[in-house]
Amino acid sequence: MGAGLGAGARLRATRTTPGASMNAWLWSAAALAAGLLVYLVAALLRPEDFS
After folding, report:
1. Which among 9, 20, 33 is positioned nearest to 1, based on CA atoms?
2. Mean per-residue pLDDT for 26-46?
3. 3-class secondary-structure state, position 45
4. What domain of life does the native source organism fall in (predicted)?
């Protein structure tokens, strides 16, 4: 095995500030989830528009 790998291997802490944890991937995932929620609610309220 390579050096630093195995059962005792540890991950380094990231150098981010406490408020900077919402990066672009999380924002885009949140926007996608919100859009999907709006779509599903609209499909439940008016199913004839989505058939």
Report:
1. 9
2. 95
3. helix
4. Bacteria
Q: How far apart are CA 28 and CA 17, in angstroms?
A: 20
Cα dihedral 36, 31, 20, 5, rounded to 10, equals: 50
The whole-angstrom separation of Cα 1 and Cα 43 is 53
| 4 Cα distance to chain centroid | 29
Q: What is the pTM of this model?
A: 0.54
Nearest to 37 by CA among 3, 45, 5: 45
**pLDDT on residue 25:** 86
Instruction: Show me where the domains of the chain are located.
Output: 21-50
Residues 43/50, Cβ–Cβ less than 8 Å: yes
